[in-house]
Design a protein that fits this description.
By secondary structure, this protein is of the alpha+beta class. About 50% of the residues lie in helices and about 10% in strands. It has two domains: about 250 residues, no CATH class; about 200 residues, endopeptidase fold (from Nostoc punctiforme) (Alpha-Beta Complex). α2 runs antiparallel to α3 and α4 crosses α6.
Amino acid sequence: MIAAFTALLLSFAPATPAKESEPDLHMKEFNRLEVEQQKVAVEHLQDITEWALTLRAGSLNFVARHRALKKRKKALGPADIEEFSAGVAEHLLMRREFLRVLDHYSMISDPDHLSLISDESRLKGGLIALAAGVVLYDNHAFCYAAIRDDAQLRKLAERSDSGYGIKSESFSEVMEAYHSRENRLRFRRALDLLQEHKAQYDLMRNRDPQIDYLLALVESSPSVTSIGKSGFLGDYAGKIGLFAERVDVKGFFLGEQVVDSVSGAFGNTVGLIQTRHGRLYRRPEVTTALSSKLKPLDILLEKTPFRLTDKFIPGHFGHVAIWVGTEPELKAAGLWDDPLILPHQDQIRQGRCVLEALRDGVQLNPLDHFLDVDDTAVLRCAILPPESQAETIRRAFRQHGKAYDFNFDVGTLDRIVCSELAYQTFTSIQWPTERTLGRATISPDNVAVKACDGKEFQLISFWHEGKEVPDAAALPLYRKLVAEPAKP
């Protein structure tokens, strides 16, 4: 079957004089196709991982609301129950996508499985399978943590809902897979193989940035610690409920507790280990210095190399936000009592003037919340006419509340990702976009590059690796970082 498929593919290629034997040519062509397929598979894995993180953020918000209702001795309403069912259905759909990746690459990476795949492709395939399994385990652990000790949520999870295609045994199947002794043995075996081939992976990551992302995905997973080291006793005890696994991930416990409330910062990195805080974190002098320079509609860029998400975002910067202005600034613009801004007056008075798209939606946050970063840059539009400022601010506020776009598609208007915030706000700008898997996307560096020549946007302030860059050196360094591809 493989030989026939390969022959069919080769029949479309132009005939060339054979310098090698036909089997060698077939082998090379087969592996060239496998390399391309694995590249697309990792891009798909990135998409569904973003999907998983978005769902976790929404789920945490739901659990937080539920816990708040319980404290007030109130029950979930019909809208809450429908939201829960819709969330369960989406989790199950997402799970099937991970299983497809996991099942395919588990097979080709099996040492006993004969194939034409090269050793390097086999190693990458095994890492793809392990990364998919890691996120799947984290998802399962999250579900377990969210409802394990909550009778009402567990009852909801275990019921059927034909309207959403949910079977009564769906939750039990997920939990059975999570506690499966066989699955955990395979997981540990994959972790052992990763360590065994560590030197080879280190060489591969220098040539293939996707390896760096996959390794970071595995290394940042709480399941690698909790399951990788638990052994048979831990598996058995967890399954029968003798004790709970306790892994702390920024306030998220895989076991008996779920966070009481969810901050925007946690929503942005939910389920992932943040290895440290940014170099500008909790530095009042930085917040004061930046606040004094900011004006409404300034674009804020950030770099966070200590977060997993930074590993697969192309370019230097990893996040985009917009400073919408303070109460005095919005009053000066004649917008304070505008219907789009009126609902947010209390938040703005509290200093929540940074509009950003996080995984739990587009929201307003304080500047010091944004500044858990190593680098930040402030860009100001140089071609926006004064008479267009008010409508542009209103356009920014129209994005508030939109859901996170884990597909990164600029063509979708009801969902938005961070860099799309600038795209949808400054509509007169011809933003550069890129084609990825058949859709147009815009990265933070696609936004950042607009300030390199100073024509459409100007660089107002630049902080790099925790230090403010002097004005004379700021633009040359900024151009170098934005113009040069990020190193793996």
